[in-house]
Amino acid sequence: MSIRNNLHTEHGLETYATGMTSSAGDKARINDLLVPGTILEIGCGNGAYLSTLGEERLKQTTAVDMNAHLLSMAATTINCRETRYVRANVLHPDFDKAFVKPDGRNSRKFKNIVCCSVLHELYSELKLEHKNSTDDGEHMAWLNMREMFRRLWRLLEPGGRLIVRDGKRPAPMRAAVRFKSPHIANLFHRFADDHPWFIQYQQVGEWVELSRPDLFEFMTKYFYEENWDVEVMERFGWIDTEGLVGQLTEAVGADNFKVASLNGYTIPWLETKWNADLDVRDCDDAESIMLHSTMLVAFENV
Predict the structure, then answer these.
(1) φ/ψ of residue 26, rounded to 5
(2) Strands laid side by side in the 201-204 sheet
(3) What mean pLDDT is reported for the chain?
(4) How confident is the model at residue 106 (pLDDT cuts 50, 70, 90)?
(5) CA-based angle 214:264:128, to the nearest 5?
(6) Cβ-Cβ contacts under 8 Å for 96 (sequence gap 6 or more)
(7) How far apart are CA 161 and CA 112, in angstroms?
(8) For residues 174 and 191, what is the distance between their CA atoms, to the nearest angstrom?
(9) pLDDT per residue over 16-70, tens digit each?
């Protein structure tokens, strides 16, 4: 999903779509968590996740994005006439109206709502919008995100699942990184200057010491040189799994859902890339560490 107009250039869209398509294999992990029935995908982008679904699933799928260009790409790519494509903004209070039944009174409900690599973009946009507030936009961002969760929950059938695959924020400890080439070192310095939130670090010999969340932001962005100005503005490590459970609890109430599945892992492509470009270790015991890149969580409506 794209939430920024500067992806509307042909080259920007092509670069963005290529990245999404290359991750389709990993996004297929979501399918193990689906329950039988309809699917609503929030932020379908160019259809990368949709491409992992079989024809019978696609016939029951509604795909949503606010970017008209990417929505058109998805509709062109996915060969199923019964898949619905809806241009709507999940952050808008009238989002539900996009799914009103012919009777004009009630909205359709879905057995599965999938948010694949989209919630960090929404959070980042909201945080940037309120960046000059006293808490750097954190309060207003989560106030709006909880409203969004409530909107989605109203569209979820009893026994249905809200499935989230997205970036996973590391624990707030410190780590040290050593760059394996001058080019990667230069990209780090560029990132530190360009990131909208101040990156504090100290250099000790060959090693740069900084917080794990800040290091994670660099590690998930430095290879996006072509769409740098867009990617550097996002906070991919937007929350950890415990925090996500807490936010959903505040949004819909602890008695209204259960955690059906909760996992954290590192995308194999990223692990290979990081091992080739970086040495990362713990600041206290100097042991090598590998950060989880991704969370995959399923919440069930009870």
Answers:
(1) -75, -35
(2) 201-204, 207-211, 174-179, 278-282
(3) 92
(4) confident
(5) 40
(6) 107, 151, 154, 155
(7) 5
(8) 18
(9) 566 666 688 899 999 999 999 999 999 999 999 999 999 999 999 999 999 999 9
- Calpha distance 22→302 (Å, rounded): 35
DSSP letter for 173, please: -
Tokens of 82: 């019964």
Phi, psi at residue 147, to the nearest 5°?
-60, -40
Three-class SS state of 127? helix
Location of structure tokens 């989605």? 152
Band of residue 1 on the pLDDT scale cut at 50, 70, 90 = very low
Find the range with the poorest average confidence among 121-135, 163-177, 233-247: 121-135
pTM of the model: 0.93
Question: Which is nearest to 280 in space by CA: 209, 203, 191?
Answer: 209
The sign one gets for the Cα dihedral 107, 30, 222, 74 is: negative
Give CA angle at 186 (185, 187), nearest 5°.
90
Identity of residue 161: R
Whether the CB-CB separation of 165 and 296 falls below 8 Å is answered with: yes
Residue 85 per-residue DSSP state: E
For residue 55, give both structure tokens: 């024809």
Sorted by sequence, the CB contacts under 8 Å of residue 13 that are 6+ apart come out as 2, 7, 69, 70, 73
| pLDDT for residue 225 | 86
